[in-house]
Amino acid sequence: MHWSSQLLLVGLAATSYAGGVGASSAIPDYFQTSFGPYAGPTKAGEAPFLAQATLLAPEYHSYKPNTPVVTDVPIFGGPKDAEIFKHMGNISPYLPNPSGFGIDEYPLPSGTNITQMHMVHRHGSRYPTSDASVATVSDRITELRGNGTNFTGDLSFLNDWTYQLGEEELTALGRQQLFDSGVLHWFNYGRLYDPSRPLISRTTTQVRMLQSAENFLNGFFGPDWTRNVTLEVITEHPGFNNSLASDKECTNHNNGKSSAGDDASTQWQEIYLEKATRRFRQSMTGNQNWTTSDTYNLQTLCPYETVALGFSHFCSLFTWDEWLGFEYANDLSYYGGNGFASPTGRAVGVGYVEELIARLQQHYPYPDENSIAINKTLDDNATTFPLNQTLYLDFSHDTNIFSILTALGLKQFAEFLPISGPPPNRQLIVSHIVPFAGRFNIEVIKAPRPVLAKRPHGSQASAYDLNGTETTYVHMLMNQRTIPLGQSIAECGQRDDGWCELQAFINVQKENIIKANFDESCFGNYSTPKYGSVSTGTV
Ligand SMILES: *[C@@H]1O[C@H](CO)[C@@H](O)[C@H](O)[C@H]1NC(C)=O
Ligand SMILES: *[C@@H]1O[C@H](CO)[C@@H](O)[C@H](O)[C@H]1NC(C)=O
Ligand SMILES: *[C@@H]1O[C@H](CO)[C@@H](O)[C@H](O)[C@H]1NC(C)=O
Ligand SMILES: *[C@@H]1O[C@H](CO)[C@@H](O)[C@H](O)[C@H]1NC(C)=O
Ligand SMILES: *[C@@H]1O[C@H](CO)[C@@H](O)[C@H](O)[C@H]1NC(C)=O
Ligand SMILES: *[C@@H]1O[C@H](CO)[C@@H](O)[C@H](O)[C@H]1NC(C)=O
Ligand SMILES: *[C@@H]1O[C@H](CO)[C@@H](O)[C@H](O)[C@H]1NC(C)=O
Ligand SMILES: *[C@@H]1O[C@H](CO)[C@@H](O)[C@H](O)[C@H]1NC(C)=O
Ligand SMILES: *[C@@H]1O[C@H](CO)[C@@H](O)[C@H](O)[C@H]1NC(C)=O
Ligand SMILES: *[C@@H]1O[C@H](CO)[C@@H](O)[C@H](O)[C@H]1NC(C)=O
Ligand SMILES: *[C@@H]1O[C@H](CO)[C@@H](O)[C@H](O)[C@H]1NC(C)=O
């Protein structure tokens, strides 16, 4: 057992945790970075062996070096450069949002400074969670083979395929994504760190959450990062309050009351996978009783095998349209489970909003009695909730991050999503929002004068309103692209750059805490709403 050397830990004697078991009692639970009682279940997967794998279908001749995984698999019916790995919802490997959120990026006018950056980062690519239905494929295929089913044609590899995935923890690709992101954030924000003022960074007790934070911090600060930052590890488990894993404390999030999104997704799967299901039935002998949900599980294996083993035979079994359908299945699930169509959509994310406002105003959070979505013990103490940092580096889960966006009132993701298929130009595309290693950044920007709302490209005119005085803004980015705050929050105004004046933003977010209706949403005794009957992210 080892405790990482948190030598800079404020308020604790450095001698008491030079490493070693005897030191453990001196370190409070929230600064212990070894895997503890709330690390959750994990299971290692098989080691990959790409160099020896039979990767290519016979008709696929071109060779491309792997990078490190193989994503350029041939897809039927797609454009020439079809990139299915950009359409896999929350199990897409990290990609910067390729199309933006409806607004251009603008440079800072000279004389304007970024003074703070608040980040929430998802963990990287992992094995399936232990309760994931994809993990049942192994038993299903074994059962079919045991009953004499032979797979033929495209499915013939299933005659001797084995399930080799682990559970819950990061894959090597997941570690790389977080390390790369740490490097990226160092380039973007390195100067906001003052080496004489060590930081607190927060994650949760789950194995992949610890692994992600550590790999990020290694990328940002280098391998001696424990000299620069103390990792705070907040308990992720039912019964504990944790703004970075609030689903665990929000009873109604887990008892079926916010399951409408998953139901909608299942109905859509019946539609877009109908043909594939018929196709697969023709590629196996015997009375297999193959279902749409079997087909969906095979499709899900493509991204999971790829991030774990480097390559998957399952990817090429599906057409381009079926991959676009897969993406939409994820969109429905998040919209109805964590977004504006979920009765707990705002509540699960509101704890972070309480903390964000506290940090922006530099005073501890004071939520009302019926809105306590944080751990007050931790958040009322400078050791565990400092208010004087310029960099706030937090780590969380996809569902929690999606709910934070809902709690922040980003109504650009509130458009109704029909079960029958995607509306044109929809904004809610999960792979653009919470892919593996997805993240948002909220920059605080101090300008000597107001920055004009209209900022025509190529204009030589000053970007400032020369009549005004010093003004502070927030600029929010999701996966490296600007979120146009004015599109969702009228008080931010229709600015070309998508920024929002700081005080206007804070005022709106204070109202959003009330709108989350935390106690009633999480603990109220209401009947499960039908898909589509909730549109405000609360009951
Ligand atoms: C396989 O055979 C067993 C025993 O006959 C039976 O209970 C089961 O339903 C069969 N499974 C499938 C998928 O046909
Ligand atoms: C499956 O293939 C094996 C070996 O080729 C053969 O012995 C068996 O009869 C086949 N079973 C079915 C149900 O076709
Ligand atoms: C981390 O802290 C050490 C010790 O104070 C310092 O020497 C080093 O420069 C810091 N790293 C960065 C990236 O600032
Ligand atoms: C709050 O955090 C403290 C310190 O980790 C912990 O002892 C306590 O159980 C937590 N309370 C809740 C309700 O999560
Ligand atoms: C196929 O599975 C469905 C759902 O489990 C079941 O209702 C049906 O009876 C099964 N059909 C056969 C032929 O086994
Ligand atoms: C945890 O959350 C519950 C529900 O909001 C609240 O009643 C309790 O005071 C919180 N505990 C702490 C330590 O913040
Ligand atoms: C804040 O946390 C530190 C470290 O755990 C502890 O020593 C101190 O007593 C706490 N302060 C208050 C006011 O609770
Ligand atoms: C915040 O204030 C505390 C107490 O004065 C100090 O120990 C710590 O270094 C400060 N942190 C930063 C990042 O300025
Ligand atoms: C931005 O930083 C520069 C250099 O530290 C400083 O001279 C300038 O006053 C700052 N601008 C604002 C608006 O604070
Ligand atoms: C600044 O003030 C002048 C004089 O009052 C006015 O003509 C001008 O429109 C103002 N500029 C802006 C950007 O408001
Ligand atoms: C919840 O409401 C239902 C319907 O009004 C009622 O039958 C049930 O007893 C209530 N449950 C609790 C725990 O209050």
Which CATH-level-2 architecture of the largest domain? 3-Layer(aba) Sandwich
> CATH topology of the largest domain, which one?
Rossmann fold
Give the H and E element order: EHHEHEHHHHHHHEHHEEEHEHH
Tally of domains: 2
Number of strands: 8
Net shape: globular
Averaged pLDDT: 93
Description:
The protein has 539 residues and is an alpha/beta fold. It has two domains: 113-125 and 174-246 and 349-523, Phosphoglycerate mutase-like (Rossmann fold); 133-170 and 257-335, no CATH class. Helices cover 30% and strands 9% of the residues. The protein is built from 15 helices and eight strands. It has helices at residues 137-146, 172-189, 207-221, 251-254, 260-272, 274-282, 292-309, 320-337, 345-361, 376-379, 398-407, 430-433, 485-488, 502-515, 518-523, and strands at 113-122, 199-204, 229-234, 391-396, 439-447, 471-478, 481-482, 500-501. The strands form two sheets. Strands 1, 4, 5, 6, 7 and 8 form a six-stranded mixed β-sheet that branches. It has a two-stranded parallel sheet with strand order 2-3. Strand 2, helix 3 and strand 3 form a beta-alpha-beta unit. Helix 5 (260-272) packs antiparallel against helix 8. The longest helix has 18 residues, at 172-189. The model is unreliable at 1-23 (pLDDT under 50). Bound molecules: 2-acetamido-2-deoxy-beta-D-glucopyranose (11 copies). One 2-acetamido-2-deoxy-beta-D-glucopyranose binds at residues 11, 28, 381, 383.
